[in-house]
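Before we proceed, please read the two lines closing this message. Let me know whether the structure tokens fit the sequence:

…
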Amino acid sequence: MVNKANKMRSCLAVVFCASLGGGSAWGACTGPPHDQFDFWLGSWHDPAAPAAEHYTVRRTAGGCAIEEVLTGASGETQGIGVSGWDSERKQWRQLWADKDGIVTLYAGGPAVGGTFVLTSESKGRGTRWRYTYHNIRPDSVDAEYASRDGEVGSWTIVWSGHFYRIGPAGD
């Protein structure tokens, strides 16, 4: 299973890096805006989830990408995300793939009220997904996952959680 996860990471990295394009995205990736998602670095657990389930988030690709791995209660990788600052579009982009074969591209970044919001492109019947981080603190963060049909209308929260940092935020 580890080999399968490594292949998934490699594939995600290639596709994601191609989506960022060239230019200054390949320069030094330190300071603003490259540090805007650093609050999520480290290992995280939501007490409402099974005890062994956690996210591990680290910088990779010379510091220009953030890799997020969701490990399930069984110890198997449930999903992998790769995020980076897209200097051409002036926004964060994330490519997420999970064990069910669902691949989603998100875009966004810092938003009103100290939140960090990533919203997907339309999928399937026009459904969009939004991941919102809020109440961001050094050792905890709240998150909501919501959906809506189409480009307008209200969002329906399908999941919310409160994460506690269980491991360091080192690169």
User: Anything to note?
Assistant: The chain has a mean pLDDT of 87. The first strand starts at residue 42 and ends at 45.
